[in-house]
Amino acid sequence: MRETYDILKNIVSEQDILTKEYMKNHTSFKIGGSADFLVTPRTVDQIQNLIKTLKKENIPVFIMGNGSNLLVSDKGIRGVVIKLSKNFSSFSISGDEVTAQSGILLSTLSKSIVNESLSGFEFASGIPGTIGGAVTMNAGAYDSEMKNIVEEVVAMDMDGNIKTFTNQEMNFRYRKSRVTDETLVVLEAKLKLEKGNIEDIKAKIDDFTVRRTTKQPLTAYSAGSTFKRPEGYFAGKLIEDAGLKGIIMRNAAVSSLHSGFVINTGDATCENILELIEFIKLTVFSKFGVMLEEEVRVVGEQ
């Protein structure tokens, strides 16, 4: 442990290194044991140096953003967690193009995009998380997704090489991309939007906001939609039709507001959440013959 700490402090400031840091403090689920180390680099050079050095030393690395789509093991994460969020949150807008670093929150970026009367980003305004996470998972809502607006992505591979990918090269699919295929680290994304009417844009966002606040448990501890949408179905509808809406197992529950959300009622463990997820999957499959697939990313020592 001391050896790893010495390696880290030669790359980043000691104030940017946390030891035995509980991951529940860094995820929207409020669940997760401790990471051996959690580092918040301030520059791309530091990220590159960390990745190269830790690989050379055979120290495991996990990259995260805002932690809004993660379920971390109760045993935590071994090695080093590199968190990219507030230190990588700059952006610029030129005409109808937006260039944003990976750590900026979608909600923050949305406000500036609206002020420039740019349309196409409305669907993302209420999605929790960062632009990096949204690109990684090809986040989407209300019949739109990141694939429709991303022009190019700057990313780093796990050897520390920085590359620029076009939209086509990103291989965007439903909740997947080249980033998930190759374990890349998103550094920056360039979006191509359209000039629009600011009042129309605001009205669209307001409509999406009302829909979200009335139909989704936004104040609960969760990772958003727990399951991917199975082809031809809606996960939440299947779960509700299976009679599981509002069910509570230990401290994990299916939201009574939207059955597609598994939530932490306050003191749930990762094991509690996973047990409920498995129960939901088996119940839905036994009733409808559809096997649900998790959208939430489960990480850490099992």
TrEMBL record:
SUPFAM superfamilies: FAD-binding/transporter-associated domain-like, Uridine diphospho-N-Acetylenolpyruvylglucosamine reductase, MurB, C-terminal domain
Pathway assignment: Cell wall biogenesis; peptidoglycan biosynthesis
Localisation per UniProt entry: Cytoplasm
Pfam families xrefs: FAD_binding_4, MurB_C
UniProt keyword terms in alphabetical order: Cell cycle, Cell division, Cell shape, Cell wall biogenesis/degradation, Cytoplasm, FAD, Flavoprotein, NADP, Oxidoreductase, Peptidoglycan synthesis
Any one of the GO CC terms: cytosol
GO molecular function list: FAD binding; UDP-N-acetylmuramate dehydrogenase activity
Cofactor(s) needed for function: FAD
Principal EC category: oxidoreductase
Catalytic reaction equation(s): UDP-N-acetyl-alpha-D-muramate + NADP(+) = UDP-N-acetyl-3-O-(1-carboxyvinyl)-alpha-D-glucosamine + NADPH + H(+)
InterPro entries the record matches: FAD-bd_PCMH (IPR016166), FAD-bd_PCMH-like_sf (IPR036318), FAD-bd_PCMH_sub1 (IPR016167), FAD-bd_PCMH_sub2 (IPR016169), MurB (IPR003170), MurB_C (IPR011601), MurB_C_sf (IPR036635), Oxid_FAD_bind_N (IPR006094)
Domain FAD-binding PCMH-type: 31-196
An annotated GO BP: regulation of cell shape
PROSITE patterns, sorted: FAD_PCMH (PS51387)
PANTHER family: UDP-N-ACETYLENOLPYRUVOYLGLUCOSAMINE REDUCTASE
HAMAP family per UniProt: MurB
Family classification: Belongs to the MurB family.
Record's protein name: UDP-N-acetylenolpyruvoylglucosamine reductase
UniProt source species: Acetoanaerobium sticklandii (strain ATCC 12662 / DSM 519 / JCM 1433 / CCUG 9281 / NCIMB 10654 / HF) (Clostridium sticklandii)
